Amino acid sequence: MAAKLAVQETADALDWDRRVWACPGANIYCGSPWGTYKARRGLEVRRAVVSGDGADLAFVQWQTRRKGPARFIHVQGGPLLTAAGAHRAEAVFAAFIDHLALGRLDVLAVDYEQFETRDATLALLMHGFAPVIGAPDHTLELDLTQDLDAIQAGMEPRWRKALRKAERNPEVTTHFLEDRAERLEAFDDFTAMFAALRERKGFATTLQPQAYRDIAAEDERLLFLDVRENGRRVLVRIAHLSDSRCTDFYTASNERARATGAATLAVWRFVERAKAEGCRVFDFGGIDPAANRPVFEFKRGLCTDVVQHNPLWVYSRTSALRRLAPALLALR
């Protein structure tokens, strides 16, 4: 009989990040900076290592929101299975669920954020998790195993024309920011431009810039791209890196960005950087053609390979909640 797996919680963020980022499939949502950001937003954040037979099998960071006697527990980007854990995924999930000691009113949701593996999917199905997919749960992915000339050849002509025009414009410059002070300054401009965009377009967002400001500036897994016209910042675009994927994350710009083709140039700089970093995929971070057609039209100029986002997997001990929660969350 196999020994029972151990679930050990830890508060050591430095050790956590060192061990997580040594694991294939590691992503920004597993790291302690993302947990710190979520904690600042009022969520209870905890993390634990699942181990067995002397080996680390999985790393799990989860967020908890309480409402009366009920809990909503959310895992993003994980549970992150190690090579050893992939072979024992069903047992890993069982140990984690037991550790949570779920009540009858509790709901557990797992969202791999495009980092789901076959072993994780099978384990989720074995434990009765229900997948939730909505129309906005799709993205566009660009295959970075192609060379850059082939990628440009596959662009829509309007996109390629806008890119070439922006690249030829000596007044427009791009720069990846590495210095913390520069990134903080850029994030402050991003915040102001983001607020203006929201007021003008009225879109919904979960981002709380002030809570994320210093965390983002210090997170080496985030790429900050600064685009300027005649020395004045017109756009800030942020993406995050994993070992195989570069994901477009947040962007904000002012009225001059459109006139200069700053957004097109910024995305292309991310494509170049992601390919240089060895990524196999550039993920446009989601599309919603029905609710946000202009952004979709911009994104599909680069590529049209639509991919269904990993589902939000939902679990509850209570059969009624198992049936009801996915239906409610599908309306989110």
Q: How much helicity do the residues have?
A: 25-40%
Give the overall form: globular
Specify the structural class. Answer: alpha+beta
> Secondary-structure element order, as H and E?
EHHEEEEHHEHEEHHEHHEEEHHEHEEH
Radius of gyration: 21 Å
In whole angstroms, the N-to-C terminal distance is 43 Å
Low-pLDDT stretches:
none
Give me the number of helical elements.
13
How much of the polypeptide forms β-strand, as a percent range? 25-35%
Mean pLDDT: 93
Count of extended strands:
15
Q: Biggest sheet, in brief?
A: 8 strands, mixed
In short:
This protein has about 325 residues and is α+β, with helices and mostly antiparallel strands.
Structure report:
The structure is a single chain. The protein is α+β, with helices and mostly antiparallel strands and 332 residues long. It is built from 13 helices and 15 strands. The protein has helices at residues 13-20, 32-40, 83-86, 89-100, 118-126, 148-153, 157-168, 180-201, 209-218, 255-260, 262-276, 293-299, 319-329; strands at residues 6-9, 44-52, 55-67, 70-76, 80-81, 107-111, 130-132, 138-143, 172-177, 222-229, 232-241, 245-253, 281-283, 306-308, 312-315. Strands 1, 2, 3, 4, 5, 6, 7 and 15 form an 8-stranded mixed beta sheet that branches. The protein has a 7-stranded mixed beta sheet with strand order 9-10-11-12-13-8-14, with helices on both faces. Strand 3 and strand 4 form a beta hairpin. The model has no long low-confidence stretch (mean pLDDT 93).
